[in-house]
Amino acid sequence: MHEMTAESGNMPIFATMKAIIVYSGGMDSTTLLYQYRDSIGMAVTFTYGARQDEAQLACARENCRILGIRHLVIPLEFMGRYFKSSMFEGGEAIPHGAYDEENMKSTVVPFRNGIMLSIAVGLAESNGFDSVLIANHAGDHAIYPDCRPGFVQAMDAAAQAGTYEGVRIVSPYCDMTKREIALLGKELGVPFEKTYSCYEGRPAHCGCCGTCHERKEALAGFDPTLYEA
Questions:
Q1: Annotated domain spans of the chain
Q2: C-alpha 173: how far from chain center
Q3: What is the Cα–Cα distance from 31 to 168, expressed in whole angstroms?
Q4: What are residue 7's DSSP bridge partners?
C-alpha cells in the first residue's frame, strides 16, 4: 500500500502516497503543500475562532488555486467558544517578544492538532486517501504538546488501528527547524508573500508577536513580509 523510503524523527516519509494535508496557510504548511503537491489530493483548512483565521484562510485558498489542489474548509467554532487560549478573539493579549515556552504558553489551543488530525484521518478514509500530512516542526516542541514527535507517533498508531486501510499520519518536518523549512521553501519557489503567520490577525503582520519574531528569523535574508513594526 505504501512504499517507505525514509524516516524523519521516526515519522515515515513515503515515495508513493495519496494524501490529505492539514493546511493552515502559514509558511510551514505552505512549504509542505508545494513540496508534496504531486501526492496531495486534498487540502483541508480548519477555522476555529483564532484571530488569524481569516488571513490564513485567504492564503490557503490562493495557494490551492495556484496549484490546482482541491480545498476543503471545515469550521470548528466550538473550540473558540469552549476552549481557553489567547489565540481566540476575546482572549487575553497575544504575547509579544520571544517565541519560547514561557512567553508563548498562553497561545496553546488544547489538543487542537489531535482534533484536526482525527477529522483529517476520517476524511482520508472516506475519500480513498492513504495518508495525512502535517507540518509540525522542531521549534514547536517545547511550546505545543500536540506538535511533539511522541504525540504524532501516537496519533499515527491510532489512525492505523482505527481505519480499515491503515491511514498513516506523515510529519516530514518533525525534526526540522523553521529556518530549515524556510530555506527548503526558498529552493522550491514557495511564494512566502502568500503565507500568513501573525497571531494578532491584522492585515499586515504586526512584527512584534512571538510568531512574527519566529517568522523574521526563519526568513532572514529573503523575507517578503510587510510588517507594521
A1: 3-218
A2: 10
A3: 20
A4: 12
Rounded Cα–Cα distance for residues 169 and 105 (Å)? 25
Taken in order 116, 127, 28, 224, the sign of the CA dihedral is: negative
| Phi-psi group of 111: left, alpha or beta (phi > 0 → left; psi -120 to 50 → alpha; rest → beta) | left
The candidate with the shortest Cα–Cα distance to 133, out of 27, 66, 10, 37, is 37
Residues 3-218: name the CATH superfamily: HUPs (3.40.50.620)
**Mind listing the pLDDT tens digit for each residue in 96-150?**
766 555 656 677 787 889 999 999 999 999 999 999 999 999 876 667 888 899 9
Cβ atoms of 13 and 170 closer than 8 Å = yes
Q: Could you say which DSSP state residue 224 is in?
A: -
Task: Please tell me the total number of residues recorded for the chain in this structure.
Answer: 229
